[in-house]
Design goal:
The chain is α/β, with parallel strands linked by helices. The strands form 2 sheets. Strands 1, 2, 3, 8 and 9 form a 5-stranded parallel β-sheet that branches. Strands 4-5-6-7 form a 4-stranded parallel β-sheet, covered by helices on one side. The protein has a single domain, classed as TIM Barrel (Alpha-Beta Barrel), CATH 3.20.20. It has helices at residues 3-22, 32-39, 46-60, 102-114, 133-142, 147-161, 175-182, 214-226, 243-260, 287-300, 319-323, 348-357, 373-377, 382-390, and strands at residues 64-76, 119-124, 165-169, 188-189, 231-237, 263-270, 306-307, 327-331, 361-365. The protein has 14 helices and 9 strands. Helix 4 (102-114) packs parallel to helix 6 (147-161) and helix 8 runs parallel beside helix 9 (243-260).
């Protein structure tokens, strides 16, 4: 093909990019078509995309980036799902398989309290007692009928005995369980990960992981919306999905937000390779892929908090600010990231310095974002009392970053 015949194609592509970027008007979500073009931007086009993402973020929440100082509580790592990228889950009898006791949980929460933490992040396998009789026996020994009953009790224990606020990530939930957990936690979360159900096929990332069916996860997120529960969700990129899948996952979350207004945070999380996982030979998303996905998420969801974990993009995590994130997520001064233990959290002082170098102030928030706090605090009972004690007048954490 001659240079003359290539030129119109190149100019056409540039025009498409310019039109797509032109949709990024202040506070207005871009179309799916524009998002697809932008997430496929070239390296030469990337700076313009990032500038649009950062400008949109500054319009939404100017001059600040937030984080939640947390204690990571792995309630149980037994899980009935087998995801191709996970090293958190265990079968009974595996090295490291463990269900925490109430004493262990309370000790960990109190240690975090001394370090200024305000969030107790409960992570756990999805309904392991449905698969493992050993888990049923453990629960009986603890005095509970199910993992969710135990989680509910431990959230209440931490809420009652410490100043920490629970944020559970329990997997799929019924309407009843969303209501029960909302009584002992101001917010909760479930990663959508992807809308591509083909990833449940044999050999794919969600092979033998029935709880990762997108329709089931969307149902849980929607039910939380019906009950007005502040909710964290997001997408996991690099697990076999296409660029269009990434856009469609963000759009699916955006549709729920438009209907119910309860999505307090969208996480853009990148797959990281680990030894001894089925996906050990899969490529990780590049830095450029992460930046493109974050920027497109910001432009599709201009009024939603966008987060990306700094430890999964180290040492260049501050580049994520340029794409439009306004939150670092939970960062712990005490506990590792049990989902990605090989990727330590940045030291909070280093996080502050990196953030300030980008011209932003680092603020510590609670597990529930300031704009969602009034609705939760209006509920009567212990939870609202603890929230009022933890929150400053502006809705951020009383403890400084």
């Amino acid at each position: 093909m001659s240079a003359a015949s290539i030129a119109p194609v190149v100019r056409g592509s540039e025009l498409e990019f310019a039109r797509a970027l032109g949709e990024a008007r202040p506070g207005v979500s871009i179309s799916r078509r524009a998002a697809l073009r932008l997430i496929r931007s070239t390296d030469d086009e990337l700076p313009a995309l990032l500038a649009a993402g950062r400008a949109s973020k500054e319009l939404f929440k100017p001059k600040v980036i937030t984080y939640s100082r947390k204690v990571f509580i792995p309630l149980t790592n037994l899980c009935r799902d087998y995801c191709g990228y996970c090293i958190f889950r265990r079968d009974p009898g595996d090295p490291g398989a463990h269900t925490m006791t109430p004493e262990e949980i309370l000790s960990l929460a109190r240690a975090g309290e001394k370090l200024g933490c305000t969030e107790a992040l409960f992570s756990l396998g999805d309904k392991p007692e449905w698969l493992f009789p050993e888990m049923r026996q453990t629960l009986r020994g603890l005095g509970y009928k199910s993992t969710l009953h135990y989680l509910e009790a431990m959230c209440e224990l931490v809420l009652r005995e410490t100043s920490l606020l629970p944020h559970p990530n329990p997997g799929l939930l019924s309407a009843e369980w969303i209501s029960r957990l909302a009584a002992v936690s101001p917010s909760m979360g479930l990663m959508l990960e992807t809308t591509n159900s083909n990833l449940l096929a044999q050999g794919a990332a969600h092979d033998n992981a029935p709880d990762k069916l997108p329709a089931k996860r969307l149902r849980t997120i929607e039910e939380a919306g019906k009950q007005k529960v502040p909710f964290t969700t997001g997408l996991l990129i690099g697990i076999g999905e296409s660029l269009a899948d990434r856009v469609d996952t963000i759009l699916a979350i955006g549709k729920l937000q438009e209907t119910y207004g309860h999505i307090q945070e969208v996480i853009v999380q990148n797959f990281r390779v680990k030894a001894n996982i089925p996906m050990a030979d899969r490529p990780e998303p590049s830095c450029g892929e992460m930046l493109r996905c974050v920027a497109v998420a910001r432009l599709l969801l201009p009024q939603v908090n966008i987060q990306a974990p700094p430890n999964l993009s180290a040492p260049y995590y501050d580049d994520l600010i340029d794409a439009g994130i306004n939150d670092w997520g939970g960062v712990s001064p005490l506990t590792p990231d049990f989902i990605n233990p090989e990727k330590p959290w940045p030291h909070l002082e280093q996080l502050r310095l990196r953030t300030e170098a980008k011209g932003l102030e680092l603020r510590q928030r609670l597990p529930v974002y300031p704009e969602f706090l009034p609705g939760v605090a209006a509920r009567p009972g212990l939870l609202s009392e603890k929230l009022r004690a933890a929150a400053a007048a502006d809705g951020f954490a009383r403890r400084a970053a």
